[in-house]
Amino acid sequence: MAVQLTQKLFATITLVILAVGAVAAILAFGALSNNRSIQSYGTVKAINVGVYWNSACTNVTSTVNWGMLSPGTLKNVTLYIKNEGNVAVTLSLVAQNWSPVNAPNYMVLSWNRGGQTLTSGSVVSATLTLSVSSSISGITSFSFDIVITGTE
User: Fold this and answer.
1) At residue 2, does pLDDT exceed 70?
2) Range(s) of the domain holding residue 30
3) Is 127 found in the same domain as 69?
4) In the predicted model, what is the mean pLDDT of residues 11-23?
């Protein structure tokens, strides 16, 4: 009888320890994986160039939806830039009209084509990268204008 009682007590203590361990693991994981998603959007304005979704330049880009972003991440979007003029241009990019106004304190828009010369009629793929700081706070959605310019 004492052996059965000892076995039951051992089994009960084992179950309690497993349950407490499982709860502790769930709480620890939850504390370590606290993410915040950020909705976003971007409007594209092109000056002296065309901006497209495809290399054939048939699908015009007017907005970029960056999707849901988490702190400390970055997202790439590939666009195609076409010089639609008759002289060579040098490409530049700027992000402006951020909403909220403090968003650029936590986010950076960059690309791989700054300063590149694009001859008349030529097309180049461009990768735009939006980086979100791991210290972002207080921003749950944002928007900004992407301005791509070709300067003679």
Assistant:
1) no
2) 1-34
3) yes
4) 46
Looking at the whole model, is its pTM more than 0.70? yes
Element spanning 121, H or E:
none
Mean pLDDT across the chain: 82
Count structural domains, the chain.
2
Q: d(Cα 33, Cα 36) in Å, to the nearest integer?
A: 10
Residues 46 and 75 in one domain: yes
Based on the fold, state whether residues 30 and 52 are members of the same structural domain. Answer: no
At 8, give phi and psi (nearest 5°): -65, -45
DSSP string, 28-89: HHHHHT----BEEEEEEEEESSEEESSTTS-SB--EE----B-TT-EEEEEEEEE--SSS-E
What pLDDT shows up at residue 44? 83
Does 25 share its domain with 57? no
User: Token pair 């639609």 is at which residue?
Assistant: 84
